[in-house]
Prior knowledge:
The chain is mainly α. Helix content is about 60%, strand content about 0%. It has two helices and no strands. Helix 1 (about 1-10) packs antiparallel against helix 2 (about 20-45).
Amino acid sequence: MYVLIAVVGAVPGIAGAIGLAPVQAEAVLLILLVVLGHGLVWRFVAGEGRPAEDER
């Protein structure tokens, strides 16, 4: 995801291939990055990513 953001930042003309302005393409990619980060944090907080706790 970071590489894709960097590529669009370095070569903004490729955003026109999907019909977006470069700023719009970067905004969409950054939103996707935040959503992915939120999903990973939620998975960790919900317990799937944590080791099992010892039962006493």
